[in-house]
COX assembly mitochondrial protein (Gossypium darwinii), 81 residues
Amino acid sequence: MHPPLTLHRHPMCAEIIEEFQKCHLEHPITKFFGECTELKIKLDRCFRQEKALKRKANFEQSKKLKERLQALRKETAENDS
C-alpha cells in the first residue's frame, strides 16, 4: 500500500506518480493483471528513498535539539549551584 499520490507532497516522485496514474487510466482492466507493476515497483522504491531522506533530516534535527537541551540543562544546573 502506498501513501496518497499527491504530487505536491511527493515532489521527488512526481514523474513516476504521473506515469503510474496514466498507466492506470490507459489500462483500466489489465492493471489488475500486472500491466503497471513495473511502475508500481519504481514508485515504491522512490517512496522508500524519500522516507529515508526525511528520516535522516528528522534525526539530525532531533540531535541538534538534544544538544541544545543538554546545554541548557547544564547551564541551569550551574546557575542553581
